[in-house]
Every structure is written in structure tokens, then in C-alpha cells.
Amino acid sequence: MQRSELRKQLRLARQQLTRAQQDKAAEAVLQRLCDLPLLSHATYAACYLPNDGEVSLTPFIKHCWQSKATSHPMRCNTTLPVLHPVCKGHLLFLGYDAQTHMVKNTFAIPEPELACQNIVPMRHHSVIFMPLVGFDSQGNRLGMGGGFYDRTLASVREAHTRPALVGIAHDCQHVDRLPVQSWDVPLDAIVTPTQTITFNQK
Ligand SMILES: Nc1ncnc2c1ncn2[C@@H]1O[C@H](COP(=O)(O)OP(=O)(O)O)[C@@H](O)[C@H]1O
Ligand SMILES: [Mg+2]
């Protein structure tokens, strides 16, 4: 199937999930993320705000904020992606906490207001959590079609040390085999409400 047709079908499937199913999925993903070994000593975790029926990371983000105030082992800082103002099609990651001033980007998705001092370089992150439209059992990721994460991660995909790349998805976004292009950056792990699939040692 063509990527555009797959996107349409998979987006419809997640858009049709009920509020109750979405809430349950977000809680189940939070529990699974808390069990990820890589989060026990994490520095920064890049998250996202849900759009188009994506699994919400808000319970996870709140958990990180609350844990930071205690001596809990999982007390990493959270960042959010921001559309790069100069390098079109790329993302920056900015620190995100309860005080962050948010603005809407051109996709009407809230993002932290751009302030240079709040930019967190990619190499400072332990993990980048990515939303996706579809995934397969080989760790391939189909996004919304903008290629933002592929472009942003292109320079680090082969690097020896880089953040773990973890896709977050509903179970209904799993397909047998995705059509893959050379620029698609594969994932190190995928977390759904019922599964944690890891593809390498990260
Ligand atoms: N590293 C890259 N450099 C330049 N263009 C890229 C890069 N990665 C992706 N793109 C462009 O982004 C577009 C969308 O990528 P695609 O993989 O289809 O989207 P998504 O990953 O959001 O599903 C492609 O047409 C491709 O040309
Ligand atoms: Mg891609």
C-alpha cells in the first residue's frame, strides 16, 4: 500500500478512539515508560503534546515534573519540539515545565515560545519520544508526512552516542511491514499500551 493511503487509514483508526480509550492508553504508556531501564538515569526526555489522536504523554510529563521535586530515581527534565525558525523542516527541543510560556505553531500545536536560553541540544537528551502514524515489527516509523524527525535526526542516526529513539503509539498503528525510504530514521524501541518492543541495546 502507498504511504499516503496507509497514513489515511491509520490516522482514521486513532482518531476514532474514544476519550476513555485515549485516557487508558496514556496511563498504560506511562506505566510502561516508568519501567524503561533507560529512564532510570535520564537527563532530558523529549516529549510531544498530543495531536490527531496520538497517545498523550501528559501523564508521563506530569510524573516527571512531580518526581523532580522528590528524590525519585526517575526525575528527568522534559523538553518539547519547536519548529526551527531558520532551518526549515527541522526541529529544536526546548525545556518544558509548568511555567513555560506556550504559543501555537503553524500546525496549531502548542509549543514553547522560542527563547535561545531554553534550547536543549539533542546530545543532552537521553531519549527522544516520537509520535507516529504507523510502525512495524522492524522498528520502522511512518510519520504524518512532514519528515521533521527524519531531518532533525539525520545527522545523529549513525552516531556512536545519541539519544534513544522511542516511538509511542496505539496498538492499532501496528502494521506488518511499512514501505521504507532511505531517509526514514529507524526507532530503537516502540511503546504501546500493551507492548514494549526494543530493537537494539540502547
Ligand atoms: N534527512 C532529510 N533530508 C532532506 N529531506 C528529508 C529528510 N528526511 C525526510 N525528508 C523529506 O521529508 C519528506 C517527508 O518524509 P516522510 O518520511 O515521508 O515523512 P514522515 O517521516 O513524516 O512520515 C520526504 O519527501 C523527504 O524528501
Ligand atoms: Mg519518514
Structural commentary:
The protein is α/β, with parallel strands linked by helices and 202 residues long. It has one domain: Rossmann fold. It is 23% helix and 21% strand. The protein contains 4 helices and 11 strands. The protein has a 7-stranded mixed beta sheet with strand order 3-2-1-6-9-10-11. Strands 4-5 form a two-stranded antiparallel sheet. Strands 7-8 form a two-stranded antiparallel ribbon. It is globular and about 45 Å long. The relative contact order is 0.18. The mean pLDDT is 95. Adenosine-5'-diphosphate binds at residues 142-147, 150-151, 154, 181, 183-184.
What is this structure's SSE topology?
Elements: H1 3-15, H2 19-34, E1 44-46, H3 58-68, E2 77-83, E3 91-95, E4 102-104, E5 110-112, E6 125-131, E7 134-135, E8 141-142, H4 148-153, E9 164-168, E10 189-191, E11 196-198
Parallel strand pairs: 1-2, 1-6, 6-9, 9-10
Antiparallel strand pairs: 2-3, 4-5, 7-8, 10-11
Helix pairs in contact: 2-3
Magnesium ion (MG) binds at residues 143, 147, 150, 184.
